[in-house]
Amino acid sequence: MNIKDTAESWETLSTRRPFQGAKTAVDSDEVRMPDGSTARRDYQVHPGSVCVLALDGEGRVLVLSQYRHPVRRRLWELPAGLLDVPGENPLLGAQRELYEEAHAKAEDWRVLVDFYASPGGSDEAIRVFLARGVSEADGERYRESDSEEADMEVAWVPLAELVEGILAGELGNPGLVAGVLALSAALAREGGVDALRPALAPWPARPYEA
């Protein structure tokens, strides 16, 4: 069997936007179901996100610890951020986040994994890049005005340790979980990470200009 996601769109009879935030919104759609009935679907409208799994020559991954108020926890995460500019090349967004959050740059970029954060309640699409050949960025360190992000802790952690933390239920950020496990799978298959998609691979969930 050829198992893959496919595009499909049920008829939307009406749409309301009861909430508009600074970066995201909530839409309420009346949708016609396959049996002819209608149902309301409320969901978060999200611009999309990028994450960077930066891997050094010793098999360590760059991670950040950040407080996340909705879940009332401090989570270990990959450098990440929103695609604030419509149609922005996600690679450029990823490179910007690696610089701003870790003052780092990378020579080799690949697409590691694409996924939807919570497709039952949000249209947020996330692309995780693998970055290798990582080094300190040029110039002065980016100064973050947001006090929440200014409190981030940065660490380089062995990949195997992160895998164990995920399987033990001790690490739960979705970008970190998806990226770390995808990298582990890529390293175990024929061709390794060199067989990953190129950095400018198409992304149907968030089309962009290369």
From TrEMBL:
Name of the protein this chain belongs to: ADP-ribose pyrophosphatase
Cited PANTHER family: ADP-RIBOSE PYROPHOSPHATASE (PTHR11839:SF31), UDP/ADP-SUGAR PYROPHOSPHATASE (PTHR11839)
InterPro entries documented for this protein: NUDIX_hydrolase-like_dom_sf, NUDIX_hydrolase_dom
Listed Gene3D superfamilies: Nucleoside Triphosphate Pyrophosphohydrolase
Any single Pfam family the record assigns to this protein: NUDIX
Keyword entries, A-Z: Hydrolase
UniProt key word Hydrolase: yes
Biased composition (Basic and acidic residues): 29-40
Database matches in CDD domains: NUDIX_ADPRase_Rv1700
Residue span of region Disordered: 1-40
Domain Nudix hydrolase positions: 44-180
